[in-house]
C-alpha cells in the first residue's frame, strides 16, 4: 500500500515539473498561455499511438491558461530570488540601459545588470522592464533605475560602469541619467563610474549614417506600391508562385528594426526581374530597373548592408567584454574596406573605358564615385587627374595629383602621380631642381608611364 501511495506522489511531482517546463517554454517563445491546452491535446494523441498504457500520465499534466500563468509567475519569483541572492554578493557591478518606444507609443526602459563576486563569477541578466507612460527625462529614468537598485539591494558605490543607448536623457552630465547617478555616487562616497555608448547602438547609428537614399527610396516606394493594397499584394504573391521565384514575397522596411535594411535590399535585388515584369503589367514601370548604373548601386548596397547585418549579429550575445567587442570591430574593418575598395575599382575600370571612348565628363563622374567609395586609395585621384588633364583642367589635375602623392598607398599610383605632376608643372612653367630632373629616369625605370 505504501508503494502505491509513493508511486502516485512521484507521478504527481513529475506531472507538475512537466507543467513547469511547458510553461517556461511558452514564456520564452512569447506564446499565449492558452496554447498549453493545445499542447496537452497533442501530447495525449502522441501517447495514444506511442505508449497507450501511459495515456493517463499525460492526462494528469495540467496546462490550462490559468495554470500556465501561475507557473510563469512562480518561475519569475524564483529567478528574481536567485538574482537577489547573487546581487547581494557582488563586489562591483555595471548597468546597461535601453529606452525605446513600442507599437502603442509607450516608452519601454530595459535595465540589464552585470556583476562579479569575490570568486570572479560573472552574472548577467535583464533585471527589469519599466513602462513609462509620461515623460522620459533623465530624472524620470533615474527614478525607475533607483527602484530596481533598491529592489535588488545593490549599493550605488559599487557601480563601476554605465552603458547607454546614447540619448541625451541618458548621457546628460547634469540633468541626464548619468548626471543623477554621479550625484548619488558622490554622496555615498564612491567614484564616478565609466560611461560608455553601447557598441550595438553605435553600429546601428553608423549604418544609418550611410546615405543610400538614391537606392533605398525607389526600393521602398516600389515595395509600398505592391504591398499597400491587398489585391496587388495577393496578385504579386501569386505571380511569384507562377514564376517559381526563389522568394515568396517582399518584406517591409522598418527603420527601427536594424536588420530590415539589408533584408529588403537583398530580397529586392534577387526579385528584380519579377518585380519589373509585374510593374509593367500594372502600367507602373520603374525606369531605374533598366538603369545598369542604378542596379550596380543596388547590388553593392545589398551586399554592404548584409555585411553590416552579419556584423550586428556577431557582436551580440551574453558575457561579451568590451575588449572582445573591440577586437571584433577591428577584425570587421578590413572586410568592409575591402568591399568598398572592390566597388571603387569597378568604378575606376568603367571610368577608364569611358575616357578611352572620349566621354570625359562621364569618366570624371565615375572616378569621383570611386573616390567617394574609397577616399583612402590614391588610384582614384590619379585616374581623375588624367581625365581632368585631357579635358584641359590643369589646376584640378594638379590638385588630384597632390592628393594622390599625399596618400601614398602604392608604388604604381604614386610614381605615376609624381611623373604626371612634374610634367604638368613643367607645362605651367615651374622651375625644377637638379634632384627633380634626376628623379624622372628613376621613376620611368620602374616601368610606369606618365599617361
From TrEMBL:
SMART domains: TPR. Keywords: TPR repeat. TPR repeats lie at residues 344-377, 378-411. The keyword Iron does not apply. The keyword Coiled coil does not apply. It comes from the Eukaryota. This is Transcription factor II-I repeat domain-containing 2-like.
Amino acid at each position: 500500500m505504501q508503494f502505491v501511495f509513493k508511486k502516485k506522489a512521484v507521478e504527481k511531482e513529475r506531472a507538475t515539473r512537466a507543467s513547469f517546463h511547458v510553461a517556461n517554454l511558452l514564456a520564452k517563445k512569447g506564446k499565449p498561455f492558452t496554447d498549453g491546452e493545445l499542447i496537452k491535446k497533442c501530447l495525449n494523441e502522441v501517447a495514444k499511438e506511442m505508449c497507450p498504457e501511459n495515456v493517463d500520465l499525460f492526462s494528469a499534466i495540467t496546462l490550462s491558461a490559468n495554470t500556465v500563468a501561475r507557473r510563469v509567475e512562480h518561475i519569475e519569483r524564483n529567478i528574481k530570488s536567485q538574482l537577489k541572492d547573487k546581487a547581494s554578493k557582488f563586489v562591483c557591478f555595471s548597468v546597461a540601459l535601453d529606452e525605446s518606444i513600442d507599437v502603442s507609443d509607450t516608452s519601454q526602459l530595459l535595465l540589464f545588470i552585470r556583476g562579479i563576486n569575490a570568486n570572479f563569477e560573472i552574472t548577467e541578466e535583464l533585471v527589469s522592464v519599466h513602462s513609462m507612460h509620461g515623460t522620459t527625462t533623465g530624472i524620470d529614468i533615474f527614478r525607475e533605475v533607483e527602484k530596481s537598485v533598491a529592489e535588488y539591494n545593490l549599493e550605488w558605490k559599487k557601480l563601476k560602469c554605465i552603458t547607454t543607448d546614447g540619448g541625451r536623457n541618458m548621457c546628460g552630465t547634469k540633468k541626464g541619467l548619468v548626471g543623477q547617478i554621479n550625484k548619488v555616487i558622490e554622496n555615498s562616497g564612491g567614484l564616478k563610474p565609466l560611461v560608455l555608448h553601447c557598441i550595438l547602438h553605435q553600429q546601428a547609428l553608423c549604418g544609418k549614417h550611410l546615405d543610400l537614399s538614391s537606392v533605398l527610396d525607389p526600393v521602398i516606394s516600389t515595395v509600398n506600391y505592391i504591398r499597400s493594397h491587398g489585391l496587388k499584394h495577393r496578385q504579386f504573391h501569386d505571380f511569384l508562385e507562377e514564376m517559381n521565384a526563389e522568394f515568396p514575397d517582399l518584406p517591409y522596411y522598418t527603420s527601427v528594426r536594424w536588420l530590415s535594411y539589408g533584408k529588403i535590399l537583398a530580397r529586392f535585388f534577387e526579385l528584380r526581374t519579377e518585380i519589373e515584369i509585374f510593374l509593367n503589367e500594372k502600367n507602373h514601370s520603374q525606369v531605374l530597373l533598366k538603369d545598369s548604373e542604378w542596379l550596380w548601386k543596388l547590388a553593392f548596397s545589398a551586399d554592404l548592408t548584409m555585411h553590416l547585418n552579419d556584423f550586428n549579429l556577431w557582436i551580440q550575445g551574453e558575457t561579451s567584454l568590451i575588449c572582445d567587442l573591440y577586437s571584433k570591430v577591428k577584425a570587421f574593418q578590413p572586410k568592409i574596406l575591402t568591399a568598398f575598395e572592390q566597388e571603387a575599382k569597378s568604378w575606376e575600370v568603367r571610368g577608364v573605358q569611358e575616357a578611352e571612348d572620349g566621354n570625359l565628363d562621364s569618366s570624371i563622374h565615375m572616378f569621383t564615385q570611386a573616390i567617394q567609395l574609397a577616399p583612402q586609395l590614391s588610384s582614384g585621384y590619379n585616374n581623375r587627374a588624367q581625365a581632368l588633364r585631357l579635358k584641359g583642367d590643369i589646376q584640378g589635375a594638379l590638385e588630384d595629383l597632390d592628393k594622390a602623392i599625399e596618400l601614398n598607398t602604392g608604388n604604381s599610383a604614386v610614381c605615376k602621380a609624381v611623373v604626371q605632376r612634374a610634367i604638368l608643372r613643367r607645362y605651367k612653367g615651374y622651375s625644377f631642381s637638379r634632384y627633380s630632373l634626376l628623379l624622372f629616369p628613376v621613376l620611368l625605370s620602374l616601368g610606369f608611364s606618365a599617361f
